Amino acid sequence: MAEQNDAYKPVVPAIVSQIYYREGNYDGLIGYASNALKSTPLPQNADEIQMLLGDAYYQKERYKEAAENFDKFAASRKGKIEPALQYKIGFANYKMGDFKGAIASLKNVAVRRDSLGQNAAYHLGLSYVQANQKQQAVTAFEAARQATFDKNIAENATLKLGQVQYELGNLPEVIAVLRDFRKKFPAPAIRRRSTICWRPAFWPPPTTRRPWRTSKASTTAARS
Questions:
Q1: What percent of the chain has pLDDT over 70?
Q2: Are 192 and 222 in contact (CB under 8 A)?
Q3: Residue 142 in contact with residue 159, Cβ under 8 Å?
Q4: Taking Cα atoms as reference points, which of 162, 118, 173, 108 lies closest to residue 143?
Q5: What is the pTM assigned to this prediction?
Q6: Domain definitions of the chain by residue range
Q7: Does the pLDDT of residue 72 top 50, yes or no?
Q8: What angle, 0 to 180 degrees and rounded to 10, lies between the N-to-C axes of helices 26-36 and 12-23?
Q9: How far does the signal peptide extend, from start to end residue (predicted)?
């Protein structure tokens, strides 16, 4: 076998790791690459193996291990990594509850004018919300909802934008967002959902409304 031949032994781990990755055999890749990276000396292209190992953990939704391996790969490249990997690092941090780390990674990707940038902007907004930086979240959600690459992301970002604006007490902005939401996403089920959550932005509490307005309010108020 090539792996037992001293001339080929250093290059085999990277090749085998690529094969596991292309086959989608993430469990096999995790087992093989983890052992390969423990060898002394390290195999050739150890940084590439580290990246593939991190992505295998990412695909398995084991975000802690994914982030650890991605960080090691990024360190080997002195932080010069592809935007797609930068996004994965940010998303992994978000899923682990490391919102500061998520913000640091995602904000560099969110400026892109493509679907990756739109997705990054949305999760950047979610991270800002969790970090209680709601004004920054408004900016991120606004960018995500204005992009046209992924309609589902735009829809969710619009809902989140309205929610954050309401929490900030910006009721005129809530009304404007809701009107835009209904215009762009007119599906009945979505309208019903927005009606429940955003009701306080448009109507006083039920005990303060006159009875004749109750039925009308229940069908026309907005939710998120």
A1: 79
A2: no
A3: no
A4: 118
A5: 0.77
A6: 1-78
A7: yes
A8: 160
A9: none
pLDDT at position 190 over 90: no
Least Cα distance to 165 among 154, 175, 180 occurs for: 175
Enumerate residues 6+ apart whose C-beta is below 8 A from 64: 92, 96
H helix runs in 60-98, sequence order = 63-76, 83-96
**CATH assignment, 1-78:** 1.25.40.10
d(CA 101, CA 94): 8
DSSP code of residue 166? H
Reference 201, options 168, 164, 174, 161; nearest CA is 174
Give the pLDDT of residue 186: 79
Token pair recorded at residue 61: 């939704």
Distances (CA, A) of 139 to 130, 145, 165, 167: 15, 10, 11, 15
Q: Residue 26: helix, strand or coil by DSSP?
A: helix
The DSSP symbol for 180 reads: H
Any idea which residue has 């802690």 for tokens? 64
CA–centroid distance for 203 within its chain: 33
Closest to 116 in 3D by CA, of 75, 140, 159, 149: 149
Q: Letter for the amino acid at 82?
A: E
Are 13 and 49 in contact by the 8 Å Cβ rule? The answer is: yes
